[in-house]
Structures are given as C-alpha cells and as structure tokens.
Here is the input.
Amino acid sequence: MTNKKPNNQPNMDLIRMVQNARMAHDQAAQPSQVAAVYWIEVKPRQVTTTPTPRAGFWRIRVTTQTVDAVWSAVKSATEAGELGYKSKVSTASRDGDPNSRVIHVLTVDADDAVDVERVRAALVKIGHTPDGYERRAEG
Here is the structure.
C-alpha cells in the first residue's frame, strides 16, 4: 500500500476546455431563450488585459422585452474590444421581478478611473447608459 498524497492542484487544461466550451455555447445564445445557465458571457476577440483583484462592473438593468437587443449591442462592442475585459447577461431575474434582467460590463480595475469612465462613455455611445458601478465582490 502506498501513501501517495492527493494532487490538490487544479487541472488547468480541463478548466480551459470547460471555459472554451462555455464560451462556444454562449456565442449564439439569446438571453431570452436560455434557462439552463444563469449567465451568458462574452470576451473581446483580442485579449489585451487581465483583471486585477480590484475589478469592477457597470450594471445595465433591462427587461425580458429588451434584453436580446441590448445584449446584442453590448456583446458586439465587447467582442470589438470597445468595452471591458468581459460582459455578461443574466438569463433569470436577480431581484424577484420575473421580467427583469441585468447586464454587467466588467472593467479590469475599479481604481482606474480613466478606464472606468472610458467604458461608461462607450456604453453611452452605443445607446445604453449604465445604472451604476460596483466593485466585484472578493472571493
């Protein structure tokens, strides 16, 4: 009998494979038509920055009637690298109202006021003024 210690290191290849499969699923997903996952996510085609522990997000509240159109605009701008390092949309209510949805546009560093404002201005430019900004919860 051997006393082999268990490998507690995460399998990064498996994690990447799952993340890539998830992003492939999310590519064609319409928020109003998805119930199997809570969030649909998109990242820029060309990754230029990575988030810091101080990442934050702009919040855009939408309804089930407008979520697909607003998400389409945010998704396109995110893929083009015009917004943050990632955007995501809820596929279910977060506040108890069955008709409400929320979009988060994530920034790399909540302490980088210039970048945070750049992302807000880009959202306004595509016609979607955010409802507020928050730091991501740690952990």
